[in-house]
Amino acid sequence: MAGLHMMEHPLVQHKISLLRDKTTGVKEFRELTSETAMLMCYEATRDPPLKEVEIATPLAMAKTKIISGRKLAFVPILRAGLGMIEGVTSLVPAAKIGHIGIFRDDEHNAVQYYCKLPEDIAERDVIVVDPMLATGSTAVHAISKIKEMGVQNIKFMCIIASPEGLEKLMTAHPDVDIYCGAKDKGLNENKYIIPGLGDAGDRIFGTK
Ligand code: URA
Fold first, then answer.
1. Whose CA is nearest to atom 7 of ligand 1?
2. What secondary structure, in 3-state letters, does the chain show?
3. For each successive 10 residues of the chain (208 residues), what is the average pLDDT?
4. 40 lines ligand 1 (CB under 6 A)
5. Span 4-44+72-205 CATH architecture
């Protein structure tokens, strides 16, 4: 059953507090984004089925388990989602990575400017990553695009979400599990999350 999974783990909460701090510099911000994404990915990858295999250890044969089932692809929403990729691929190094570039126009509508997804994406489970779920329009658009490619099982991971963004995403895509580090108060007039952490892309890439 799909739903909202709030990440209560103390390490996640601690790292989010450091991310929020305006005195956190670009190097530390980038590292914290990656580490938070890795911890959240651990939670988001609890459900793949296991199969029993036999492995020769140096001493004996062992009946043991490996992950079976569909392979994984991560899709960061450009550009801030890129900051989560190192963390998630440190846990699942063989995952393929697609990219979707979406910006919000003056009316805050989602406009796609780039999309490059793995050719075999329909055979994979997909985790879409974006540190900030603000209005929800970019996440809804990205997930619709991925569904159009035939993907059956999609999850969404964000570090901070607004209530408005969560509502919009859960209404548009009720089948998508959402993994979220913190749910904040709401959006300001420029559609930034309050209190949030500012512009995640600028803080990851040091552009402001
Ligand atoms: N994107 C960000 O980087 N920050 C916000 O608060 C909202 C959208």
1. 192
2. CCCEEECCCHHHHHHHHHHHCCCCCHHHHHHHHHHHHHHHHHHHCCCCCEEEEEEECCCCEEEEEEECCCEEEEEEEECHHHHHHHHHHHHCCCCEECEEEEEECCCCCEEEEEEECCCCHHHEEEEEECCEECCCHHHHHHHHHHHHCCCCCEEEEEEEECHHHHHHHHHHCCCCEEEEEEECCEECCCCCEECCCCCHHHHHHCCC
3. 92 98 98 98 95 98 94 97 98 97 86 96 98 96 97 98 98 98 97 97 96
4. no
5. 3-Layer(aba) Sandwich (3.40)
